Every structure is written in structure tokens, then in C-alpha cells.
Amino acid sequence: MTLNILFAAGAARWQDYQMPLREGLAEAEIDANLSLDLDPAEVDYIVYAPDSDLQDFTPYTRCKAVLNLWAGVEGITNNATLTQPLARMVDPGLTQGMVEWVTGHVLRHHLDIDYALARQDGTWDRYVPPLASDRPVTILGMGELGAACAQALVGLGFPVTGWSRRGKAVDGVTMLSGDEGLDEALSSAQILVLLLPKTPGTVNLIDAAALSKLPEGAVIVNPGRGPLIDDDALLAALESGHVRHATLDVFRVEPLPADHPYWAHPRVTVTPHIASETRAASAARVVVENIRRGEADEPFLHLVDRDQGY
Amino acid sequence: MTLNILFAAGAARWQDYQMPLREGLAEAEIDANLSLDLDPAEVDYIVYAPDSDLQDFTPYTRCKAVLNLWAGVEGITNNATLTQPLARMVDPGLTQGMVEWVTGHVLRHHLDIDYALARQDGTWDRYVPPLASDRPVTILGMGELGAACAQALVGLGFPVTGWSRRGKAVDGVTMLSGDEGLDEALSSAQILVLLLPKTPGTVNLIDAAALSKLPEGAVIVNPGRGPLIDDDALLAALESGHVRHATLDVFRVEPLPADHPYWAHPRVTVTPHIASETRAASAARVVVENIRRGEADEPFLHLVDRDQGY
Fold first, then answer.
1. CA–CA gap between residue A17 and residue A10 (Å, rounded)
2. What CATH number does domain A3-91+278-295 carry, 3.10.310.10, 3.40.50.720, 3.40.30.10, 1.10.150.240?
3. Which residue among A144, A161, B22, B34 is least enclosed by CB atoms within 10 Å?
4. How far is B76 from chain A (nearest CA, A)?
């Protein structure tokens, strides 16, 4: 039987994904009709991105699963027409890219590379940073991405504290959870990395009260979700110097408007949502594996818990 | 018997080392008279730094070993009055600091963090770097420091090639040696890290011919020794763009003179010899361990091969 697989993630992504998907399906010996345009009633699987034109899932009566190409699913979990199982993307390439970005920026702030770059004026000013073992890092959010980043930072010698609602354990990481755990996680964080999903419980989690619990001179690195941070509170904490620097990759509105105060702020580094990027080659393998599982009546990977929102 | 241990590494370092050395000796139950000033004929061990006032070792007739606080020994190996065993410092703190500095700057160049820092002008320009797995790094010099850096970079997913005269093997690292090996190591190096000692065979190793073997747009990171690089050749390669950037921590003359072209060059980052810094706490433990070995007639750690110069 030939499977009908609808690619509903936009024509631009079709360029990147068509070949890796076709190759993966062939390798898995799945006979499939992969297309941008199929009769909804005959679609077996939907390869999806939340910015797709497809927003009404009602006519896809035969569809066994919606396979998201993004890690973030907040743009789709509220869609009442979506009754099919929804899998989010856990792309090893995306995870690896996130580990590199987070490790790079944590080391940048740890070593104060910005200071070195700003002192190319002939001044031989020997600032030797402490060792990583004296630089506690806290990661809020210990899902796939947070756990992988924690592991890399532990490997480099940083004392890492992880905070997570579900409290997943990671070797060498001090795990905390709950409100009290959050206070403790914040109070020791010389560098705070935000890798929480956007849920009703995490929006504005980093508000004035949370920021005040950070040690003086802490650095914030946010490759997670823009709304985790109360922007006005962060700007105030940067103004007072309580927060030494913020490196932000995600924002409430993207692209970040050119007149947003973050752009010109000397203590803020804006990066244009580049920390987590799904890579077509590895992501296509995950999509194909989920289709194989669906056909073999095995449980899907990375199913979204619709009640929790991720 | 009370050992006489002369601290001949300057009064400034005495501040940092006195306590850790005394504590370490007490812990090892070594009865010692540690001092800045002792009768040469009665000295059992010398804790040393090459910038010391002590340059004539002739009167130290009883001395069993000279224990250097620096990793580099080129300032002392030519001293004909030094006939005692000479141990260089292999400080786990120094190694760890070097790993952090090298990993931080390799990731900085890999992610092109400089580009992000230069684009804080409101332009949402999504540059997504390749994954580390597509960014070959070559390390010249696979001693303690090179091997530790190689291991950290392999852990982050970089394909690492190591080149070394002695050809030490490191898990996950492609090892090369000899002239032909050097050509191969250079030709694949998108990022080239120099961690060779300064010896007659390594001075100006990175000359115009070597630079021409690097792929177009390679980056050089030198936390090893200044004279490894032919400075004029590097400036020419930077000018032509063949070398995209050089991050240099060590120089022929230090402090690097304020009018040296490296300071103002847009493609050069100067850091003031901060990559490798001996840390008193961990270095004192190494010194004490060598004294313990000397007294127990066990072989000294990290003895210098005077013929090789390191």
C-alpha cells in the first residue's frame, strides 16, 4: 500500500526536505507518495510546521499523525481542529547546534571575551578569569535541549544546576524543582540559561522578583522562548547593573523590531533566533522513523502532551 | 630531618604560593623549612620561575631538583650552571584554564560570535553556522595541553586532527606527525590551534609556506608560543584574506608593544598572555608531590628532557 504523506510546511522548506525525506523513506522501504498537494481525505501523515497555510485539520479524517518539523509547538497546541497525535521535532542536529551555541556563549561570558575584544587598544591588561569550577551555571528547563547543554557544560568543568518541573536527572547536575528550588537555582546562577518551553506557567517567569534573586553581576542567556522574560524588568536590572549582560536569541516579536531597546543596549547581545535550527538531514530521519513506527503499530516518538502544552 | 626548600620565584608569587605550599607540605607530613632566603649549600629543593634573580645554580650542591612553576622552560634550559633535575609545571589548573580558553575561542570563531556582536544595529540577519561536525580543527602540539584541548573539542563534536613530533595518541583524534603529516594537518584546518613548545624546530613553523597550505578563510588561535608564527607572513595572509582571523595570546615581545600592527588589525584579536595561567592551589600540590617523590626515591613527575628543550 502506498502511503500518502502531505508536506504542509511551506514551499521554501520543501526545497530542503524533499530529498532527505524521499531518501529516508526509500531507505526504510516505505512506499510513499510525498507531495505538497493531496486530497485531505486520503492523507496518512502530515509533515508540518506551525507557520503552514494548513490550519484546519478537520478534513484529514484518515491522518494518523501530524509530524512537526519544529521543536516548539505553542503555535499549534491550541488548534481545536487538531485531534490527531502530534509529534514535535527532537532533531539531533538541532540539539547539537543548541549545545554549541549555549556552550559558546557561556564560555564567552565566562572568559569575558567581550572585554578582550573591546581592549584592542594597546593596553596589556591581564584579566585572568576564574576556572569554570568556580563559575556556577543554572539551566532552567531540563528537556532534551537543557539536558544536552548541561552535559556539555559539566564536561567542561562548570558546576551546573538544572531546574525543571518534571525534575529529570542528569549525571553530574544538581537537580532542583518547584518554587523553592527555583529560588535556590537562581541565587547561585552566575550564568543563567533559559531553555524552558513557553507555557502558561513559564511566561514572565523571569520577572523583577526572579531577577532580584540572581547574584549581583549575573549573566542571562536566553535561547529558549522570548516570553519567558519580562522585558521591562530585565531592562531595569541591566540598567542598575544587577544583571551584567543578557544574550538573547528569542523575543516576543520576531524579527525583533529595529527600534527595540535591546538592539542598542550595551549590555544586551541580540542574536536573530539562530541558536536552534532544525537541520533537514537529521530531522528527515526523525520524521521517517515516526512514519515507520506508525505503520508498525509502535508508539510514536516525541508525542506532545496537549494538556501540558509541550 | 627537616628539608630546606628555597622559594626562588620572586616575592610577588610568594604571596600566592606560601600558604598552599605550607598546607600541602603539612598534609604530606613533610617537615620542611620553606623560605625565600637559605644558605645555598643547604638547600634540598628549589621552587623556581625562570624570571627569578637566581640564575647561577653552582652553589646549590645538595639540591635534588629544581621545580619550575611555569610550563615553559625555554628561559632556563640553556643555563649551563643547572645540572640538577629540572621539572616543569604541569598544573591541572593551568591545563583546565587552557582548555576553557581554547574551547571558548574555537567556539567563538566557529559560531562567528564576532559577527553577531558587530550586528547590533537592528538588522535581523540569520546566519546559522554549520555544525561542529562540519568544522575541522587542527591542533599542532599534542602534549598535556594540546591533548586536553583536543579531548574537549572532540567532546563537542569537532573533527580534530592532532600533529605532534612524538605522535601521542588521543581517543577520537586523527594523529599525524612528520613533515608530510604537517601538510595534511594544515590543509584541512578550518581552525588551527598552536600549542607547540618553543624549540629550534618550531620557531617560525607557521611561515608563508605553512599559511598557504591552510584552506581559504581559516582561523588561527595561538595560545602556545609567540615565535611559532612568522609575524610578517601572518600579517600578509590576513591582508589577503587567506587567513580570516588570528586570535593571539602570546608574542615574541611581551607585553606586545602598543604600536605593533596586531593591536589595530581588524582581523586580529590580541589577548594578553592569559590563556595559560598557573593556579597556585593546584600547582602547589604538584610541587609537594614531587618533593614527596624525591624523598621516597620515586621518579620525579614532568622532568624536562634537556636535549629536546622541553
1. 10
2. 3.40.50.720
3. B22
4. 24
